[in-house]
Amino acid sequence: MVAETPSAEELLKRPLYVYDLPQGLLTTLALKNDERAITVAEDSLDTPGETRYEAAQDLAVASSTSCTLCKVSFLNVQEQRSHVRSDHHRYNLKAQLRGNPTLDEVQFNKAVGELDESISGSESSEGDDEDDGGGQLSALLKRQAKISQANEEEMEASSSRKQTAGKHPLFWFSSSLFPSNVSLGVYRALFSDVEQDEPRHLVDSLRKKQLVAVSPRRSNDQTEGTQQQQPSPSPHIFMCMIGGGHFAAMLVSLAPEIHRRQGGVEERQARVIAHKTFHRYTTRRKQGGSQSASDAARGAAHSAGSSLRRYNEAALEKEIRELLADWKQMIDDAQLLFVRATGSTNRRILFGNHEGQVMKQNDPRLRGFPFSTRRATQGELMRCFKELTRVKVSQVDEAALAAAEAKQRQETSKPSTPRPQPSKPKLSKEDEAAMLHTTQIQALIRRSKIPALMSYLSKNSIPASFTFQPSDSQQNFRAPTPLHLAAQIDSPAMVLALLTKVEADPTTVNSEGRTPFELAGDRPTRDAFRVARHELGESKWNWEATKVPSGITRDDANQRTEREKKSAEEEEAIRRKAEMDRLKNEDIARAASQEARRPAGRALGAVEKTAQEKREEEMRGMTPEMRMRLERERRARAAEERIRRMQGR
Questions:
Q1: Could you give the dihedral angle defined by the CA atoms of residues 372, 375, 380 and 386, in that order, rounded to the nearest 10 degrees?
Q2: Which of 1, 322, 408, 466 reaches 20 to 30 Å from 107, CA-CA?
Q3: Which letter, b or e, does each residue of 83-102 get, where b requires 16 or more Cβ atoms within 10 Å of its Cβ?
Q4: How far apart are CA 238 and CA 251, in angstroms?
Q5: pTM metric for this prediction
């Protein structure tokens, strides 16, 4: 029975499944002739050949949130948050910070395919990742200049380059049920090569793909993993991902299952026929790449870690090929094969010539994922299945698109003038010298090299009130002068030397309006300022402005330091004595407790003797002959006891 077609508002509120569309919607579908890069509501891709429509997309009125950095749009905030945690977004952020151009998803996937292992840590709990998301992102950033010549031997590109090169990954349809600015997108990869070559029949092909929803199987009929041996009679697809030592594979039925919830509400869910995941330690930590790739580039390493990674690579290859052999019948019956295998090592595991080979690289059913993916897990495969089979809904103002396209054509027809690149201001010789002096002086102050600092200032004719450069840097913001820095790191000897020997100005304030004295963190450093005030005299500086208290002599400062040191030692001695008394009382109480629990007739501290000790005590004082006789008697009695026990069984 065909259910009544919901209204347009209801259709837009719920996800539309490609293989189970309402009959009323199917009868009104029509293919759009203009295959421009329409702003989509999911993880869409912008191919390089569609850059002329970027301005049109900027003026398009879309109902979804979007990421302007990566040039993708989303249906809701949850999907946008998921994209923010993806490797694609993280890469573009770092590229922007380094002044490198950002990549769209097609360019990013090609760049990732050039590496031997996939980027890992994309998911929030596995980020892994996270330091900076793994060595793979850094590797991509370092190879930014070579991305345009990235190797296109990626498995997905080799299988679908003929029909998808320069084309948008989505077919766009219109329906009379919706306004003219609403478009419905279906991934091109869901259609066979023959269907893609005949775009006029795409609507008929889409209608033929409709499947009847089925009821869920009983729990005792469901199989999981490699237990499924018989092929499923329903249409299904095969999906797998491999990279970074992670492997995940899944067979999913295209016919949805109907689950009834409370209140009689029907809910359609995907049915997983079989699934399996493997993980082996094969990726070199903090360096990226597999061990085999490292061996091929630099020769075989001989460490324990490299040996373990080689063993794990071989074990992972064996496990994957055995699984594919077990699933051979189901894979052969699958309508489509979606595979992500980055790197030559991973492609060799799946498509290399070997006995019982299941998957072939020239299989017409083979597809790549037309969007960015994360670490190979069962959850990621299910997310990709939902993304592939969900109809994309886009709401775009066609008039705005046409106007923007016309404006873009006018701009491209005009002779283009090179845009001037902003250049960094060139430093003068004085600024370079000041930055060099800053580095040297700060190093000497931090290492408390007082004679070397005095000699450096005198030799280079640097005043004690020298201001560190650049003044707007974070480390020079709080401590702009040598005296500020010495007070901040609590170096009383350096403070006293700067004040008394080179007459550093204690009234200078930093960007926060604080004097050097106010940065001192301990009493000896503060006393150094007071000693300098006493020795320099009240007329030398405006001491009230420095916030330094009244001056004291060195003897007074030393005596107070000694008093404080002695007081601290006495307090420590009292604390130690109290601690020793506490431990002694605990030992006495513990001994009394053991005495109370000791059995009667045994002396305190007595330990029961072992059998060997008892035998030695008995033989003490015997001659060697007597000891041998006693030992023979013991052995004879033991043998008799064993025989008696055996006979008594």
A1: 10
A2: 408
A3: beebbbbbbbebbeeeebeb
A4: 5
A5: 0.47
